[in-house]
Design a protein that fits this description.
Strand content: 15-25%
Distance between the termini: 34 Å
Number of strands: 12
Structural class: alpha+beta
Oligomer: single chain
CATH topology of the largest domain: Heat Shock Protein 90
Length: 380
């Protein structure tokens, strides 16, 4: 999607620049065309005036006395013509617009004006002023054409971008689906051996207790990782059945599950739990609590401490571990993001916590000082 967005922004900008250039060039050409035609016509009128005066032909003078200027001069372009003498005095006026004699070619409102001075006072005419009406119509037509071409270009670019994106992303999407299916199948296949390992640990006899404890801790870690992967892959595909869950009892149960792992690091754990009931999916709450406790243990110092508090408004888990740099706090809940790569993990635990919070309308707040520990608070 980012590639498609960059492509569309770039091609849209290019098309709009081209449309603007086309419009500018065509307007310039239109003005030049106007100028050539109106100059030629004004020069022709001046030539007629000079010829009439030089040849002592009174037909033009009589025509101007009896008829309008527009009738006396052949006018196929429907121009309006006015003749002015010395001091800009009107002699024969074909329109009543105020003329700006400081310019010889200009646009005003919806009209084009051209002033020719080549008659040189023959028949008393110093200025031949020609007016063309309705010039904005052609400019509006040109504007509509430019907008139409730009719109067609944008539509074509959008369709082309969509097709190209589909073509480029199709093999990537197929590979992702294949990998996703492989991970799901592999995760599903892990369930049976993990369960067998955990059940078999309890039946082991004549084995060093320390070795047995290490095997049990490793089995629990694998089971926890399996549970996170299963939730991450499948929670969007299944509906969550909600029920009344007693959080205090659930936290105490999960603390018992993680007690051996906490003892292996010599952690001191303090609990301040109030009775609290929530209408949620129990499996989701187990995943939320497990990930908070697992992180508090994993990223804690040897002989450190963990404080767990549950009230009617929030659940908080505070550790005395390595902490999180302030620059990484905002990104720490994104999938595969880790604040510390030295402690292992895949960066999916807090992503699961964040997902569960969003699903249930909870608010997750993280406060941390690097080297002093972190506090994760879930506000219900």
């Amino acid at each position: 999607m980012r590639f498609l967005l960059i492509y569309l922004i770039s091609i849209y900008s290019f098309i709009l620049v081209l449309a603007y250039m086309f419009y500018t060039i065509e307007i310039k050409n239109l003005h030049e065309s106007y100028g050539l035609k109106i100059r030629s016509f004004a020069s022709h009128i001046a030539h007629q005036i000079i010829t009439s005066h030089m040849m002592d032909d009174e037909m033009l003078s009589l025509c101007l006395k009896e008829k309008s200027t527009n009738e006396c001069f052949k006018n196929s372009e429907n121009y309006k013509i006015s003749l002015y003498g010395m001091g800009e005095k009107p002699l024969h006026v074909g329109f009543f617009d105020e003329v700006d004699f400081t310019q010889n070619f200009y646009f005003k409102d919806d009209n084009l004006f051209y002033i020719d001075e080549s008659s040189q006072l023959h028949l008393g005419v110093k200025y031949v002023v020609v007016k063309k009406e309705g010039v904005s119509h052609e400019r509006e037509t040109l504007t509509k054409e430019a907008l139409l071409y730009a719109l067609l270009g944008l539509i074509f670019a959008t369709l082309l971008g969509y097709v190209l994106a589909k073509l480029f992303l199709k093999p990537i999407k197929a590979e992702i689906e294949t990998l996703d299916n492989f991970i799901k199948d592999s995760t599903h296949e892990l369930n049976t051996p993990i369960t067998a390992i955990l059940m078999s640990i309890e039946t082991l006899k004549d084995i060093d207790p320390k070795k047995k404890k290490r095997i049990e801790l490793s089995g629990k870690r694998i089971a926890s990782l399996y549970g996170n992967m299963s939730y991450m892959l499948l929670h969007d595909k299944q509906s969550e059945l909600k029920q009344e869950v007693e959080l205090k009892a659930l936290i105490e149960e999960r603390m018992e599950y993680f007690s051996d792992l906490a003892q292996s690091k010599g952690l001191h754990i303090s609990l301040a739990l109030s009775e609290k009931s929530l209408h949620v999916n129990e499996e989701s709450m187990i995943k939320l609590i497990d990930n908070l406790l697992s992180n508090a243990i994993k990223y804690n110092d040897i002989n450190g401490s963990i404080e767990i508090m549950l009230t009617q408004e929030f659940l908080s888990v505070k550790d005395s571990g390595v902490g999180i740099p302030q620059s990484k706090i905002k990104e720490i809940t994104k999938r595969y993001k880790r604040a510390n790569s030295d402690k292992g993990g895949f960066g999916i635990g807090l992503d699961i916590v964040s997902t569960i919070c969003k699903t249930n309308g909870f608010r997750l707040e993280i406060s941390s000082q690097e080297g002093e520990g972190s506090t994760f608070s879930i506000f219900f």
